[in-house]
Amino acid sequence: MTYSIAILGASGYTGAELIRLIAGHPHLAISALGANSKAGKTIAEVFPHLRHLELPALLQIDQIDFANIDLCFCALPHKTSQQVVAALPADLKIVDLSADFRLRDPDAYKKWYGNEHAAVDQQHEAVYGLTEFYREQIAPARLVAGTGCNAATGQFVLRPLVVAGIIDLDEIILDLKCAVSGAGRSLKENLLHAELSEGYHAYAVGGTHRHLGEFDQEFSALAGRPVQVQFTPHLIPANRGILATTYVKGDPDRIYETLCAAYADEPFIEVLPFGETPSTHHVRGSNYCHIGVSRDRLPGRAIITGALDNLTKGSSGQALQNANLMLGIEETEGLTMAPLFP
Amino acid sequence: MTYSIAILGASGYTGAELIRLIAGHPHLAISALGANSKAGKTIAEVFPHLRHLELPALLQIDQIDFANIDLCFCALPHKTSQQVVAALPADLKIVDLSADFRLRDPDAYKKWYGNEHAAVDQQHEAVYGLTEFYREQIAPARLVAGTGCNAATGQFVLRPLVVAGIIDLDEIILDLKCAVSGAGRSLKENLLHAELSEGYHAYAVGGTHRHLGEFDQEFSALAGRPVQVQFTPHLIPANRGILATTYVKGDPDRIYETLCAAYADEPFIEVLPFGETPSTHHVRGSNYCHIGVSRDRLPGRAIITGALDNLTKGSSGQALQNANLMLGIEETEGLTMAPLFP
Amino acid sequence: MTYSIAILGASGYTGAELIRLIAGHPHLAISALGANSKAGKTIAEVFPHLRHLELPALLQIDQIDFANIDLCFCALPHKTSQQVVAALPADLKIVDLSADFRLRDPDAYKKWYGNEHAAVDQQHEAVYGLTEFYREQIAPARLVAGTGCNAATGQFVLRPLVVAGIIDLDEIILDLKCAVSGAGRSLKENLLHAELSEGYHAYAVGGTHRHLGEFDQEFSALAGRPVQVQFTPHLIPANRGILATTYVKGDPDRIYETLCAAYADEPFIEVLPFGETPSTHHVRGSNYCHIGVSRDRLPGRAIITGALDNLTKGSSGQALQNANLMLGIEETEGLTMAPLFP
Amino acid sequence: MTYSIAILGASGYTGAELIRLIAGHPHLAISALGANSKAGKTIAEVFPHLRHLELPALLQIDQIDFANIDLCFCALPHKTSQQVVAALPADLKIVDLSADFRLRDPDAYKKWYGNEHAAVDQQHEAVYGLTEFYREQIAPARLVAGTGCNAATGQFVLRPLVVAGIIDLDEIILDLKCAVSGAGRSLKENLLHAELSEGYHAYAVGGTHRHLGEFDQEFSALAGRPVQVQFTPHLIPANRGILATTYVKGDPDRIYETLCAAYADEPFIEVLPFGETPSTHHVRGSNYCHIGVSRDRLPGRAIITGALDNLTKGSSGQALQNANLMLGIEETEGLTMAPLFP
């Protein structure tokens, strides 16, 4: 059985990553590629690394015939995506990778993104796409909202602990180190090689990063009361990777046991031996997430570190994992390639 | 049908790359991993990026039972490899990735490597492993010698032109830009991040690099007379990739047509549109080789650039391609993953 | 007036950085270079970037005549340094860059370094070399102990706040991002370009890093009671730089005012406008430290980020600043070069 | 004596490099900074690494009063620069860093840049700014045209050999490896970190790079007959540096002797011991150029490698060296800082 796939936003990094993954998937075939700004080009012109693949040329989104598409990935910029999704056929299965459908509450959406949502119906319909925790809802869903890559990393580290009630919910600090591809293929001065290479810095300090909206939504729902974490992202001179260093108050041993138990059967989450720490280099290009727990010298405090590839497990790999569920395919299909090291 | 595989030298980069590739191969299973200096360790200790795989622990080579092994990859240092290969069962299929069996002439071997060969019988038996040009001999071979990664790159660019007799054989310059993983996982000062990052330089200038032995052997055999190229490798601050910039005298149009014809049916060699140039970033982590031809402003001169991943197409990918042939498996099996970009 | 300088440990990175700085200093001249493992070599052989300088060849330390040396920098490995310093002339001015004389308490030294101190007299004599806070004691000192580079960064961010008593001393988290040159020119697998580039990770997690000994000593002394911070260093794929992201509880406005006041007259410490964050790229190769203060969305919490170059302000620049004081030279002499960007 | 300096184009990389260098110059003071697109901003907003300097805010160029300016650096884009220079006071000393005044022949200019020159008088007046070879003309000049950074590198390697008539002028190949800052602070997709890091490629292959105009002009003038070299630039994932690998036919020993003799008294050109090769990492941030000569295994052929920092010796350092001459200051003043390594 082969399913027919469309990718909208094929000229961005998450679009390219979807193509890379689907090219190795035995049950999916790419039937349409949309990329308004680069419509008319071949994929070889936009992404020379994919030139060996036989793929359709890029189209304007409104040129695409969705009649025979089984599932559509939307890898479009936020705000654009909600308009496009609202106009797609109402029965088309969609995995959206933008920020547009992550927040269920219209007020929360407006608070973090500044505008009224243009597709409120779809916003209500969308299922939050953190696969390991929303499998039951994702499988039958029509529209799944991919999570923020930072939000995914932080939740892998923290969700089981919030549920178990074994950490102080008012004392959670997430210090994230993010590679540059998370910012997309955008022409900004601070993303130039000469500006970024050999240097690193914090950004969106103090609680202004939009992925906080997801943390607030998810952790508060799990805890049954408002939870607000501290979260500082940093831009690191590397192309792929997110490393979350998480400071919590709680018993390190119970934390470790809780995480081990939570992820014992998960194919993509690896909890390292107690005291070891993951590296982004060891998950690069893969759908794996590595988690390490360490005891602090101060009693009752632990440091939990989590590493994943923002483009794969943090975005396009997660999206494919969800698509597999939605199409009734084995969840891990097309996603078990080993990381690229060195 | 599943074949049982052993990898000797599993703690080096080409060993890790073999494991990465074989982990995604439907007909191969790793039964034994040898790594004398790290025997007793698990693969997760040596290569944390492979921790999700179920693999045997590393063994001393003499602890390995080769009775049920269908094919053995030797990813050992040169000089070591010839001793190990000589001691392996005489009917064991072997793909050797070292430099030990690349040169057919014992005198040439001694000239470039400085010592008498310790396995002359195997040296005579070995087939040169440049798959695209030695398929007929590789398929039935027992022992195949993987090529040098630089030697592979230069030959992909030049062999069809030497055969066609359309370039001046006395005026060939190969200027190569090599990423650092080609030097292996060795503790040398010049391979430290602080020494290499942000800088680049030529090395083995003037004709001292050992891969020249392969160029001499192969090009002279093709031409039916001695051919000696100029070859300057450079160390570039990147982890994977070889870029060969080749300066030749000949008609650029004929050169382009000849390369297009030579590689028209090759699954892994892509000749770009005339005038375009490849980037190592666009083949990284893949078994593809991209080739570009440009016309110089000086009449009768052309520049040919070739890019591949030294660990994949230049080494372990080539080795697996050869193993597929030797085992009667589809040649491309396990090797068609797209490059990792960005 | 020109002072005669010796540098012991001239073949390491802090040694090279001292030479770079002193080469531009109008009142210092290098008379002797010691480097036991590379004795007999010229500086051009050990550090080709310094080949344009006229410098003495490297000597065994016991070959050096200290009779006419006005001041000696010891850039030796820790444990070695204490033995060498104990054997140097008793009236020789010394700036030590190792870890050996940073901790005043022999028990604390043993706790963090595992051995009895071999030069207890000098340990007692040594002045802690954080220039901005120990100027009065450094100027007349004979032996000054350079601080740890991580310890310097954390103290620049925190000392004025501890003194002012405006942050919760039991709730301080220092998340540090450190470039690779801080690990020195040592042949370790994890410092290879192929291992480090494109990846990053935490290390010494949970309170095992030795620079914690300095934090404990200094903050406790300032506070008049025991203070223990949480501190997690991370290795980042860059050659120079330390970025400290510091999470504290206290009023962000008072914190900002306190830091502005504390550093108003300091030539090398720049407090950025409120809410801005520094980048290591903007201090690279210089003796400047940039500090930024941001308000967290959670009331009563602030994030303070500090950036400096570990080899300059974190080590050799600090050492020269101290040497200037000890020799009666203007403190900033030879240290005001602008950072190298990009 | 202090001279008053203006810098036009202060928001680009060569502008920032000029500020860095002049900040350490004892006889120059920056009186005006022009940057049309960022007029009104402070230097700290445009280049945070220069925030410690007391500098005037950026102005529109037409807001600048040139009455008291002793010398003006124009670090503007080409085509813009010729218009600005034509409108500056006729007696103002100018060092131009753009491409606009490098080619003396209006036809050559039009051939390489595609447009008629808008300041032909100044074009005729301008002196070519390769300091080591045009000192006599530069010192009394009013307008000096900085060379291309690639053109400078190639000429340092080749000029003495062309003059001496000891290499085959029809067989010169320049293979250049260029760091990314040479492309300026421009928002282009191929200059993004995610596109460039970890990969490298050739560009402007086959004789289309505009610096060829300079090679043709200079080498032909030296030889007294037309000389055309082959020249292939490559973009390397590093921020600073140019490495020229030059293939020539001639006697390696005579070549070496000729280069040693030519540069024996030059303060910034270092010819390495025969057979050694320079690295860009060893000249980074400095005004030094390192040159190495190696013998090829093919008789009568040599490889000459030259390394410099494109922003310093290749551009702003050269410009300051010329300004020193024009103002009657010691030529090396402000330029002898050692390279930054690592």
Please provide a written account of the structure.
The structure is a homotetramer of 342-residue chains. With 342 residues, chain A is an alpha/beta fold. The first copy, chain A, folds into two domains: 160 residues, Rossmann fold, CATH 3.40.50; 160 residues, Dihydrodipicolinate Reductase, domain 2 (2-Layer Sandwich). Chain A has eleven helices and 14 strands. In chain A, strands 3-2-1-4-5-7-6 form a seven-stranded parallel sheet. Chain A has a seven-stranded mixed sheet with strand order 9-10-8-11-14-13-12. In chain A, α1 packs across α11, α7 packs parallel to α9 and α7 crosses α10. The longest helix of chain A is centred in the middle third of the chain and has 16 residues. The model of chain A has no long low-confidence stretch (mean pLDDT 97). Chains A and C meet through β8, α8, β9, β10 and β11 of A and β8, α8, β9, β10 and β11 of C. Chains A, B, C, D: It comes from Roseobacter insulae. Chains A, B, C, D: One of its GO terms (cellular component) is cytoplasm. Chains A, B, C, D: Belongs to the NAGSA dehydrogenase family. Type 1 subfamily.
